[in-house]
Amino acid sequence: MFAKKFFTCLVAAAAVFNVHAQKPVITEMGNTSLVFMVDADGSPVYSVTYNNRAVILPSSLGFVLANDTSFYKGFELTGTDKKSFDETWQPVWGETKNIRNHYNQLTVHLRQKSAPNLLLDIVFRVFEDGVGFRYVFPKQPGLQYFVVQDELTQFHLAGDHKTFWIPGDYDTNEYPYTTSKISEIDNSDLVKNSTAIAVRVAPDKYAVQTPLMMKTPDGLYINIHEAALTNYSAMQLHVDRATLTLTSSLVPDAVGNKAYLHAPFSTPWRTVIVSDNAAGILTSKMILNLNEPSKIANTSWIKPMKFVGVWWEMQTGKSTWNYSDYADSLDANGKPIPNGRHGANTANVKRYIDFAAANNIKGVLVEGWNIGWEDWFGNWKENVFDFVTPYPDFDVKGLEEYAAQKGVHIIMHNETSGSATNYDRQMDTAYRFMKKFGYTSVKTGYVGKIIPRGEHHDGQWMINHYERVAQKAALYQVMLDAHEPVRPTGLQRTYPNWLACEAGRGNEYNAFSDGNTPEHETILPFTRLIGGPMDYTPGIFKIKGYSTTPNRQIHTTLAKQLALYVTLYSPLQMAADFPENYAAHKDAFQFIKDVPVDWDDTKIIEAEPGDYLTIARKEKGKNSWFIGAITDENKRTATISLSFLDAGKKYKAIIYKDADNADWKNNPEAYTITTQTVTSASTLTIPLAPGGGAAVSVVEEKP
Ligand code: NOJ
Ligand code: CA
Predict the structure, then answer these.
(1) What are 400-432's pLDDT values in tens digits?
(2) By the 8 A CB rule, do 626 and 642 touch?
């Protein structure tokens, strides 16, 4: 009797002293404050403030698991751990030489009150510029192999913010951005009318993709995304327009499940970046900091570069990827009949190699070199390409020797047409071929519906595939540029050979659709590029007047195309236009020749998503700066203080700007180039045309 009473007493005392379960736990860093608590239903709840302003109102966390459909309530807090972390690290390549990773971490340990008392931890990292958090499923007897049916992470917004969004879609992110209030989000027409060339599957008309960029009415900038997306499906967000609540909506697999996991397991980080100025969103290093350090020990072979390519010809219809017009167009001897417009022929590739060599450009991308392009997408075929068999007019060995002689690398192209299973099977063969013939990098592609059938570009199966490709490429010391993958989440820190992705609506849409609006490139850095570099393929000089696409045009001025080398960061940057179009503007092409692709420092001079952006970057290992300034459809004047230059030194500035009468629509190729001596006391004021931009190189003048 006594023993039983004593035990009851102990439990009661424990409940009273279990203060964590009652009181909210607060974690802070600079202006950012995170509050965590377990509410009356036993649901984990968090909220975020910045400078005492609400960023995320109390929002619940949790899951629907196949074996526990209420894994979001009935929890008790059994303990917390706290730690602080401050480290500065150097990326293999990047926008800055040093990156500081400074946070206060809170881990909450939760246990379900009813049997089998399943465990869940949540780890929060509070940074000066926001919060990242992830779920950790500890190793436990009741939860070994398990299936996630839904993740219920909420982001309850504190207002009806201005939002830059693309529709939720399981298979493509190649959408133009819509700017609207949260309460006005409805993607139905956008998905219906989309020109995205990958398939489109977007069953939820109120879903959006991340990185999601928002601005509050009182000028707070908020960005929601995720970091370190591995072995899990991508997080899209369902928008409840009435309550202004965003809820995680994971991309399903063929049978509707969201993830197959094995404890212990940590989910990707959910990220909320906050700043009271737009520049702060662009300089945030939270996504990279939440990723694991490089898994590649020797990174000396990883080298950022510029490249040209047999590519824009196909985009504009001048030449073709395919060698024959039809898969079955054979002559009397059973040989394929050439259509006379095949782009990847030896002579043409040599022309690009010559051009690259003459202009100190390291890479030449060649698409359409391997057989299969006669029937490559739309038919959901398993084995379209083998990645090693060239068309008869593409001399693999001869071109290897020619490129080597000229000090140029040919960039391999592996279009998978969505058949990831085929690529998985062929990968070793494909990368051995690259090694043998001197290819140091590969551009992959996933146009079309994914095989295994029923899987999606952004589901767990494909997320694992993209990572396998990065790992395999690293094994063969090959650098990677993926087209049509899931959007990046900072994994380039872990796999620095994964230099770039497309994963968004690139310049190419100006060639084969109505194009990108003049504001598009002012939004991309705040959205798509938050997760990592984009292979946007800038540098188109011939803005319109292609005989094959007479009604199409680039929606920028020529000068703005130059600025994009600075404003759209990528360690792989294409000079995408034809050599002959560059030859017609040798003076402007000088900027592309000079601009580097790896940086020691980055300064955001002026920024407003959807309107304008001016960035200055310092070349890696040199005392030279490069500036890009862009505007949307409105003209404006960029005001650029050069106070970041070394005091007391003189620099030569070459300014490439829109001509006075330039305009993206009617007079896009008019530019002027001026040169002046500048110091750290100088301020440049440069007029930008509607849809225009300016580029500046600032090189120290040696006495
Ligand atoms: C779409 C890619 O974005 C483009 O760069 C490529 O040329 C085609 N697919 C063909 O692979
Ligand atoms: Ca694409």
Answers:
(1) 999 999 999 999 999 999 999 999 999 999 999
(2) no
CA 116 to chain CA mean position, Å: 41
Residues lining ligand 1, Cβ inside 6 A:
311, 367, 415, 445, 447, 483, 502, 508
Structure confidence at residue 703 (pLDDT): 81
- Interior angle at CA 487, CA 50 and CA 182, nearest 5: 45
Does the annotation count 508 as an active-site position? yes
- Four-point Cα dihedral 208, 211, 216, 220, nearest 10: 170
Residue (of 463, 346, 471, 457) closest to 410 by Cα position:
346
CB-CB contact of 672 with 657 (8 Å)? yes
Q: Classify residue 66 by its DSSP letter.
A: T
Q: How far apart are CA 457 and CA 171, in angstroms?
A: 5
- Closest of 246, 256, 237 to residue 168, by C-alpha: 237
Q: Ligand 1: distance of its center to the CA of 479 in Å?
A: 18
Structural contact between residues 84 and 28, judged by C-beta atoms closer than 8 angstroms: no
Which atom in ligand 1 lies closest to the alpha carbon of residue 197? 1
Tell me whether residue 213 is in a domain.
Answer: yes
The answer to whether residues 534 and 573 touch, using CB atoms and an 8 Å cutoff, is no
Predicted confidence band at 9 (pLDDT cuts at 50, 70, 90)? very low
> Does residue 280 form part of some domain?
yes
For atom 5 of ligand 1, the residue with the nearest CA is 483
Ligand 1: atom nearest CA of 484 is: 3
Q: Best substitution site from 314, 414, 483 to test ligand 1's pocket, by max atoms within 8 Å of Cβ? A: 483
Q: How many A from CA of 505 to the centre of ligand 1?
A: 11
Does some domain include residue 110? yes
Residue 115 domain-assigned?
Answer: yes
Ligand 1 centroid – CA 445 distance (Å): 6
Which token pair is 252?
């399903």
**Residue 201: domain span:** 2-289
The predicted model gives 130-140 an average pLDDT of 98
| Structure letter (DSSP) for residue 277 | S
Which of the listed residues 415, 446, 481 should we mutate to test ligand 1's pocket, taking the one with most ligand atoms within 8 A of CB?
A: 415
Total domains in the chain come to 1
CA atoms within 13 A on the CB side of 556: 30
Q: Mind listing the pLDDT tens digit for each residue in 646-689?
A: 999 999 999 999 999 999 999 999 999 999 999 999 999 999 99
Query: What pLDDT score was predicted for residue 198?
Result: 54
Cβ atoms 463, 507 nearer than 8 A: no
Q: Which atom of ligand 1 is nearest to the CA of 415?
A: 11
Quote the pLDDT of residue 15. 39
Q: Give the distance (Å) from ligand 1 centre to CA of residue 483.
A: 7
**Residue 690 burial class via C-beta count within 10 angstroms: exposed 0-12, middle 13-18, buried 19 and up:** buried
> Contact at 8 Å (CB) between 613 and 567?
yes
- pLDDT more than 90, % of the chain: 92
**Separation CA 98–CA 479 (nearest Å):** 22
C-alpha 200/C-alpha 175 separation (Å) is 10
Cα 171 from Cα 486, distance rounded (Å):
8
Which atom of ligand 1 approaches the CA of 315 most closely?
7
Among the listed residues 455, 508, 519, 619, the single catalytic one is: 508
CATH number of domain containing 26: 2.70.98.10
Contact predicate 234/253, CB 8 Å: no
